[in-house]
Amino acid sequence: AFVVTDNCIKCKYTDCVEVCPVDAFFEGPNFLVIDPSICIDCALCVPECPAEAIYQDTEIPDDQVHYISLNDELSQKWPVITELKPAPQDADEWNGVPDKLHLLDK
Ligand code: SF4
Ligand code: F3S
């Protein structure tokens, strides 16, 4: 499955959800996750993300591996999102800031 990683936090552009053919994205307050049991590995979402935050689980950078279980866990409790919505006003300021996990709102 594909996995949303650190750089989505506080960016949350939501371009990814528009292309997903199986509605695999789930929305928290400042982050999205993919339900690995729904994702069909089509890879369509990867180039849509302005934050380059989406990776296949088999190719995920070593320092992002903990996001695999986090996507699984949070997708079970957050609501599905299928339509683009405006990004946070300061999204561009957070794009590229490393290690935002402590800023994740659950
Ligand atoms: Fe959806 Fe395809 Fe991205 Fe999986 S890889 S979340 S199926 S768009
Ligand atoms: Fe996040 Fe990128 Fe989607 S920032 S909301 S994974 S477009």
TrEMBL record:
- Can the keyword Hydrolase be found in this entry's annotation? no
Cite the entry's keywords alphabetically. 3Fe-4S, 4Fe-4S, Electron transport, Iron, Iron-sulfur, Metal-binding, Repeat, Transport
Report the InterPro entries cross-referenced here: 4Fe4S_Fe-S-bd, 4Fe4S_Fe_S_CS, 7Fe_ferredoxin, Fd_C, FdxA, RnfB_subfamily
Required cofactor(s)? [3Fe-4S] cluster; [4Fe-4S] cluster
In its UniProt record, a GO molecular function of this protein is: 3 iron, 4 sulfur cluster binding
Boundaries of every 4Fe-4S ferredoxin-type domain copy: 1-29, 30-59
Task: Give one Pfam family.
Answer: Fer4
Q: Return the SUPFAM superfamilies for the record.
A: 4Fe-4S ferredoxins
Give the residue range of the signal peptide.
none
Q: Which NCBIfam families match?
A: FdxA_Protbact (NF045490)
Q: What's its job?
A: Ferredoxins are iron-sulfur proteins that transfer electrons in a wide variety of metabolic reactions.
| Name by which UniProt lists this protein | Ferredoxin
The organism of origin for this protein: Opacimonas viscosa
